[in-house]
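lol ok so funny story. i was supposed to be doing the assay writeup but got distracted and ended up predicting the structure for this chain instead. priorities right. anyway since i did it might as well share w the group, maybe its usefull for someone
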Amino acid sequence: MIPLLALSGAALLATVLLIPPIKRLAWRVDLVDHPAAGAHKSHRHPTPYGGGVALFLGLAVALAAGQCWFPELLSDDSLLLVGGGAILLLLGLLDDWRGLSPLPRFALQFLVAGVLVAVCPQYCLPVLSHHPPLATALSAGWLVAMANAFNFLDNMDGLSGGLAVIALLALGVMGLWVGQLPAAFIALALSGAAAGFLCYNFPPASIFMGDAGGLFLGFMAGGLSAQLSRQHPADLFFLAPLLVLLVPAYDLSSVVLIRLCRRLPPWQGDHNHLSHRLVRLGLSRRGAVLVIYALTLAASLAILGALHLGNAWLVLPLPLLALAGAGLEYAARDRLLQAPPP
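and the output, tada:
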């Protein structure tokens, strides 16, 4: 446990130290998010991207240190997951810098996820085992969904990064409980890197993670949750790692449904995310971020409690609460379909 915490701290420190030079470089090469770049933008001043690069490099520092001093914490499969995440990081970085059309973005995401699941069956969800192609497709869909869910959540300062800290900590604890040290190592180290990024991204943010960071964090969290779900194939326990990501999954599904109801492309940005809807209910932007933190923390603690008590049925209220929330929002759909800037 102590080596894992030390490596997580190394990732945090490396990220904190790397962000200032990355910000200077981002300004120099115009890797900057300009408010006028899209109607869905809600920040007022140009802000550099590059936080995703800092997240990856912070994790890389922890991986290098782990390889030197604790090689048992690494496995080939975990390095392949990081490699897949790195490809999505580069894809997002290119999108942040020059912009890409949706089709090649999603095509490459599905290709990377599908290859990873096919090559490393431990990232395949423990469902439809009698239909391997369907299981592979579903698992790749989960990875792509989580990559985009974290990217979509990066719509307010500190939101996606802070949620990642909480969710990855929970996944790291699960990994320790079931003896999956490589998964625990990656989760805790990446949580440390996200905490270091949050030092610069919590409101008011001086750097954004961009698509590069959102896709990377979500892909990694999705892969780790799928890997840990295979440690609980019986009963409903396999849902526990997936439900840690309930909040980003809920935000993704609800905002896509709203866009489809408005006859808009699902990838078109707007102000109908969960955070925006909380602001329209009267919360400040920082208050909305903190409420989503609290929801993620409550879900994570409930899931960890269910695992500790050995009662899989305790995880059922979480998806039921999400469905209830979706029902309430559907009942108020006329209000939700209006999207004034928060």
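Confidence is low (pLDDT under 50) at residues 337-342. The CA atoms of residues 168 and 221 lie 7 Å apart.
back to the writeup now i swear
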